[in-house]
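Entry 14. Structure prediction run on the chain below.
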Amino acid sequence: MKANTIETTSSEQLIDITKSVREYVDQTRLKDGFVHIQIPERTAAVMISINDDWRLEREFFDKLNHLLPKYDGMKFTGWTTPCVKASIFGPALQVMVHDGTLILDKNQSIYFVEFQGSGERQYFMSVSGTTLAEHEEATIPKELALIYEKRKEYEDEQEKIKEEMRNEWRMREERRLMLEEENKTKETTEE
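Output returned:
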């Protein structure tokens, strides 16, 4: 088992702990099995979510606080609301490991979720399963590589659509500027 300490800096916060989980899996040389993550805090949880949207933290807490507000009218709900939020997401998570690799999409991360910070917090990790042989290296399972490839095709398609939208916007902006210039020229010649 390994204990990690982290410092939360705000009352509500998502902290990506995926790197430390991967490092722990590497240290233990887990080949096939599970890594278990446990958070012994009454107002914190652990979850898996997307890692490719910079708005995640703000929108996550905005939506959650809409459902479970800190204030009930003018009345502060105290510890109850953060504890309920932590209970909904849960204090524990286990992630499958195959061939030494966490079974996560490349756009997924493991987050420590703080609902009533700030301060020093801990999370614990342990593994269960088989270990890699002495000279064996972790590899990406074929099934996960296929998911990554499909994701890459999707991302490439999205990038193409974005570029087409940028080009269309540029063309519209150029037309708008050209029309403005023509209108200014007309106005000055009419005077």
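Residues 172 and 178 are 10 Å apart (CA to CA).
Filed with the rest of this week's runs.
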